[in-house]
Specification:
It contains 6 helices and 16 strands. It is an alpha+beta fold and 332 residues long. The protein folds into 2 domains: 170 residues, no CATH class; 139 residues, Alpha-Beta Plaits. Strand 10 and strand 11 form a beta hairpin.
Length: 332
């Protein structure tokens, strides 16, 4: 049993000065992507996905506004999670003309060839301009990457769209019986993460709650876009996860908001950032944390919130020494 995705990296070259509000690059990309994608994919007379007779065959509806049809999907889930997330937390501030920049898109729909929609939409978006100032750019390259950020296939050179028979995918094995026992580990919450217990926001990531949210998200994405829901005992795993202790937490709450370009309304998109150290029988949960690196956890994952990184893994015979920073990713 695994969790699979396709990881695309988009390389752009700035033609005009560009600007990405710090901490909001993913939101900028998500909003602009939806606007351009709808214009390219939908018929002019479309009154919206909810009233569209073609929504079951419309690529925009399937990718950007997926909804249940004829009782399909998990029970009670009318609006499905989108089958992608953006990763662009390293973008923030001004980009000068001639500079190159990149961002990633993780695609969870491994049953249909959705990558070309992203390439065509972002090529058009670059030509029309992106960011608050609508600076223009050129799409130079799109690659499908593996887990080590090595290019596995060329998807576009900026002019031609290539469609390999099979794009390389990233697969996280969730039930590997040969995993080394883990009794202590550290997790970095890279981007604001919003979790709720009932209707209340939480300020620290207790492991039982964190695991349940990750497990449910991975199972839903698999059910809708992959090989089917998780075949595990949800209750028993949740009970075991609740026994894992949060033994150290260094974090802070981030309060920020976004403005909807469609409605003009403002919505909070903050959450907590920081590092957590957990202790207990963690072995079976490590692959779920690895999956959350790609899928995110909590709310607003589509534009990059809820990204986690598993740091130093400490076996049962080791003791922690201090609480150093986890290594930070440096953009290439």
């Amino acid at each position: 049993m695994d969790f699979a995705l396709i990881r695309l990296r988009f390389w752009l070259e700035a033609v005009d000065p560009l600007y990405f509000p710090p901490g909001k690059a993913g939101n900028v990309l998500r909003g602009a992507f939806g606007t351009i994608f709808r214009r390219l994919a939908c018929v002019p007379a479309c009154r919206g996905v909810a009233n569209c007779e073609l929504r079951e065959s419309c690529p925009y509806a399937q990718v950007f506004e997926p909804q249940a049809a004829r009782g399909e999907g998990p029970s009670g889930l009318r609006d499905w999670p989108r089958p992608f997330v953006f990763r662009a937390s390293w973008l923030g501030g001004a980009v000068t003309p001639g500079a190159r920049l990149y961002f990633d898109a993780h695609l969870f729909d491994v049953r249909r060839p959705v990558a070309p929609y992203f390439v065509q939409t972002f090529a058009q978006l670059a030509r029309e301009g992106l960011g608050p100032g609508r600076g223009k750019a050129v799409l130079r390259r799109v690659e499908a990457l593996d887990q080590q950020e090595q290019a596995g296939a060329l998807v576009s050179d900026g002019e031609m769209l290539y469609q390999p028979k099979t794009l390389p995918s990233i697969r996280v094995v969730l039930d590997d019986p040969g995993r080394v026992a883990v009794s202590r580990l550290r997790v970095r919450f890279v981007t604001p993460t919003e979790l709720k217990a009932g209707q209340e926001l939480v300020a620290r990531p207790d492991f039982g709650l964190l695991f349940r949210r990750i497990r449910d998200r991975i199972s839903t994405l698999r059910a809708l876009y992959g090989r089917g829901p998780l075949e595990v005992d949800f209750r028993a795993m949740g009970e075991r996860a609740a026994k894992v202790e949060l033994v150290r937490w260094e974090g802070r709450m981030i309060e920020t908001e976004r403005r909807s370009g469609r409605t003009g309304q403002r919505h909070p998109i903050g959450g907590f950032l920081g590092q957590a150290e957990y202790a207990g029988d963690l072995t079976e949960f490590v692959p779920y944390l690895e999956a959350a690196r790609w899928a995110g956890v909590g709310r607003h994952t589509v534009w990059g919130n809820g990204e986690v990184e598993v740091g130093q893994v400490i076996g049962s015979s080791s003791a922690p020494h201090g609480f150093p920073d986890l290594p930070r990713r440096t953009p290439r």
